[in-house]
Write a structure and sequence with these properties.
With 206 residues, the chain is of the alpha/beta class. 54% of the residues lie in helices and 13% in strands. α1 packs across α8, α2 packs antiparallel against α3 and α4 runs antiparallel to α5.
Length: 206
């Protein structure tokens, strides 16, 4: 079985940048690795992503968001994540189940037990070996965005503060599984901290 690493954080935290840097470093060390993202990563998932993120006047209920995300996740696991892990690869995923817990649970106000149950069904209880949280205040994160492009970015500050609070609570509850990094640090320093932690999980990683 391979190694499953996920990146989490609020808007503008730098997840996508750091996940790509980690993939590049793994490839430089000839470690078989795959980078994917949520929602999306498959043909079905990409359609769901467009529907969820598109600016629109019509309302999408929090429950509908939850099940659309679960559908995207099931497909991603079937097509990409599980096959790669079974081949012994490192899978790096930009967002996973914790995003659903904080955005639809803490952010939207859905019952956390229900969200956790849906996540468990969708993943068949697959959990990351390491979750990297790039922590930043909502004010700083949103200020990094050149323009607010989707429904989630356009939510008010109170929503994004609840999202951050949810992340920090989950990280504090499972410190061995989480790596929390100040996302306001320089990009190179963040990448260095990530490399150091991943090196402990991969003996061949330098």
């Amino acid at each position: 079985m391979g190694l499953f690493i996920t990146f989490e954080g609020g808007e503008g935290c730098g997840k996508s940048t750091q996940s790509r840097l980690l993939l590049k470093k793994l490839e430089q060390q000839n470690i078989p690795a795959v980078l994917t993202h949520e929602p999306g990563g498959t043909a079905l998932g990409d359609e769901i992503r467009k529907a969820l993120k598109r600016k629109r006047s019509s309302f999408i209920s929090p429950q509908a968001e939850l099940f659309l995300l679960a559908a995207s996740r099931v497909q991603l696991l079937a097509e990409i994540i599980r096959p790669a892990l079974e081949e012994g690869k490192v899978v790096v995923c930009d967002r996973f189940t914790h995003s659903t817990l904080v955005y639809q649970g803490y952010g939207r106000g859905l019952d956390l037990t229900i969200v956790e149950t849906v996540n468990t069904i969708a993943t068949q209880d697959l959990k990351p070996d390491l979750t990297i949280l790039l922590d930043i205040s909502p004010e700083q994160g949103l200020a990094r965005k050149r323009s607010l492009k989707d429904r989630f970015e356009l939510e008010d500050l109170s929503f994004h503060r609840r999202v951050r609070e949810g992340y920090l609570k989950m990280a504090a509850a499972e410190p061995d599984r989480w790596l929390v990094i100040d996302a306001s640090l320089p990009k190179r320093k963040i990448a260095e901290i990530i490399r150091d932690r991943v090196s402990r999980l991969l003996p061949s990683y330098l």
